[in-house]
Input
Amino acid sequence: MEVRRLVQELRSFMETNSYSQTDLSRLTGLPQPTISRALSNPVRISRTHRALCKFARIAFDTPAPSSRGQETLIQAVLDVWDGTQEHANSIARLLHAGATLEAHGASRALKNRKPNGDH
Output
């Protein structure tokens, strides 16, 4: 499911059940500002969207990653990993942090884009 459609379904769920973002925060344990960001100009389906969909029982399928993309990613991780569990955890945290930064940067870029497409 495309991210904008997913957000529409989440908003519809909220309206149907008279849930505010604060209500969802209390019920899901997700911070209200995080929910707000997920529902405002999302660029990709995030962990927040997944958690909200799970709570709302909204099913969606994500496209399967390409095998070439997986191979590239796996090789890159293996190239830098020293083989220890501690380093594996560090790499995982770094990847998760990078995904958060990338999503934030992409949404900022969209907000800063001029109407004619120039930056």
Q: What stands out?
A: Helices lie at 3-16, 21-28, 32-39, 47-56, 67-80, 85-112. The longest helix spans residues 85-112. The chain has a mean pLDDT of 83. DSSP finds six helices and no strands in the chain.
